[in-house]
């Protein structure tokens, strides 16, 4: 898929979030209508799917954003520092993994002489959640694609200590009863962060935040 326009990217993000929110709403309503006997099972199912959609949307949206940047025909020196680092990830790894001065010099020469080259952005497999999208991994994703994570930091404890802890306990076969009120708060806040992420990416495109300020 080639995402070349802001409108195409926005339509993809909205569609992706739309079906996820629809499914999560169904699960939320199932929790609301469950009897006391079936409520623990309903909550457990809802939490597992809430995590799955949280991870899936963050990963997919980030990759779609990178796909959009990939097809803007930019040069390396036009990218902000985050995306420049992502584009040069392989070369940085070679630089970091060796003690050979020849490779170090080659890398520095490349930076000095080749930043006019077309930027190559890998949109697939650049975003790795490791099936464990905690606050640490989320911070790395934001750093990779150049978004500001500040507005999400107040929810780090919710992500790590409620969503991830509950999901992992359920996945490992442990009985975990998250009460209805705490589930409702979790659902509301995670869905709100997914909404915010769509807005953040849209704003990044509108304001061309992927570009170097000194272009």
Please outline what is shown here:
The chain is an all-alpha fold and 215 residues long.
Total tally of structural domains:
2
Beta content: under 5%
Output the helix-strand order.
HHHHHHHH
End-to-end C-alpha gap: 28 Å
Average pLDDT metric: 90
Distinct helical segment count: 8
- By oligomeric state, this entry counts as single chain
Q: Give the low-pLDDT segments.
A: none
Based on CA atoms alone, the radius of gyration comes out at 20 Å
Estimated helix fraction: 55-70%
Number of strands: 0
Shape: elongated
Largest sheet: none
Coarse structural class:
mainly alpha
Could you describe the 3D structure shown?
With 215 residues, the chain is an all-alpha fold. The chain has 2 domains: 6-74 and 122-206; 76-118, no CATH class. The chain contains 8 helices and no strands. Helix 1 packs antiparallel against helix 8, helix 2 packs across helix 7 (156-171) and helix 2 packs parallel to helix 8 (180-206). The longest helix has 32 residues, at 39-70. It is elongated and about 70 Å long. The relative contact order is 0.17. The mean pLDDT is 90.
């Amino acid at each position: 898929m080639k995402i070349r326009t802001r409108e195409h990217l926005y339509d993809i993000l909205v569609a992706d979030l739309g079906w996820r929110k629809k499914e999560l709403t169904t699960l939320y309503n199932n929790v609301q209508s469950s009897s006391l006997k079936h409520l623990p099972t309903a909550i457990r199912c809802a939490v597992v799917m809430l995590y799955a959609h949280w991870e899936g949307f963050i990963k997919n949206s980030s990759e779609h954003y990178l796909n959009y940047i990939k097809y803007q025909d930019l040069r390396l020196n036009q990218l902000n520092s985050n995306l420049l680092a992502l584009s040069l990830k392989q070369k940085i790894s070679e630089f970091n993994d060796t003690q050979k001065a020849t490779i170090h010099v080659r890398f520095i020469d490349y930076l000095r002489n080749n930043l006019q080259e077309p930027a190559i952005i890998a949109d697939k497999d650049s975003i790795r959640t490791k099936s464990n999208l905690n606050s640490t991994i989320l911070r790395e994703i934001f750093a990779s694609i150049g978004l500001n994570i500040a507005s999400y930091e107040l929810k780090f404890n919710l992500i790590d200590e409620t969503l991830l802890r509950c999901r992992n306990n359920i996945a490992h076969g442990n009985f975990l009863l998250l009460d209805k009120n705490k589930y409702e708060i979790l659902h509301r806040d995670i869905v709100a962060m997914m909404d915010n992420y769509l807005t953040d990416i849209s704003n990044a495109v509108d304001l061309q935040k992927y570009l170097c300020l000194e272009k």
